[in-house]
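Students often ask what a holo structure prediction actually looks like on paper. The answer is less mysterious than it sounds. You provide the chain, you provide the ligand, and the output is a string of discrete structure tokens encoding the 3D arrangement of the protein together with 1,3-dihydroxyacetonephosphate.
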Amino acid sequence: MALMTLNQLLAMDYAGAICGFNFVNLETAKAIISGAEELGAPVILMVTEGGVKYAGLDYIAAIGKVAAANGKIPVALHLDHCTNFELLVQAIKAGFTSVMIDGSHLPFAENLRLTKEVVRVAHAAGVSVEAELGRIGGKEDNVQVKTAEGFMTDPDEAMEFVAATNVDCLAVAIGTSHGIYKGEPNLNLALLEKLKSILDIPLVLHGGSGLPDVMVKKAVEIGIRKFNVWTELAFAHTNKIRRVLKEQPELYDPRSLFKPAIEAMKEVVKSKILLTQAG
Ligand code: 13P
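The corresponding structure tokens follow.
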């Protein structure tokens, strides 16, 4: 199928949240696409700035585009947590159908101004834009926010921000964080309910790894429409490689390592898709 924009994907007739999974290479893209395909679910292939640095923009865009073209499910190709305006423009030129501008480290007025500019450029190219308001804690590649520096999305600011920027969807900070949780995550679901009641654009939950299933289900029930996961996928992939090498230390063909690692990651992809489907 041809790539869709994030807007088109999120507007689809699909009950629950659509998962956004990060990929960094051919193997991780394959795990995501084949998992989504087995369930017939739409999916968002996401690349961080760190992923671009690792693979190269052209390589990673090509992998995403071919994965979507060969797949039988709707796919959007999304640049995740971009803080660099130039890179964002290059990604649009390279064929990404969605970009996230992460100005959450900036003062409110600057985040608003930057997001507005990104929306102007991206929309002119028919590309969707996600932004972030509040600060999601934890570490996501090159974006690190100490827990104490994280703060939740303010409803009044969110209303003003969405109206002024015309952004397509908003990542909200309600207590999730990227990476491994230290202790039990504590989500402010009352705040999510409030944000859902006053904003009429899709809401995004970052830091999907390690959240208890009941919390995820509740967040989706309240109205989260895009659900981001990476760390659990990375663990499944790498742990499988570790195990295979331990069991068969004589292996030398990378395919013997990556095939089972793709399968292991695919299972986590499927479990997150099933978890976030409504009903
Ligand atoms: P995790 O790595 O915590 O799953 O978060 C992923 C994410 O939010 C990507 O933007």
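Residues 22, 80-81, 140, 178-179, 206-209, 228-231 surround 1,3-dihydroxyacetonephosphate (CB under 6 Å).
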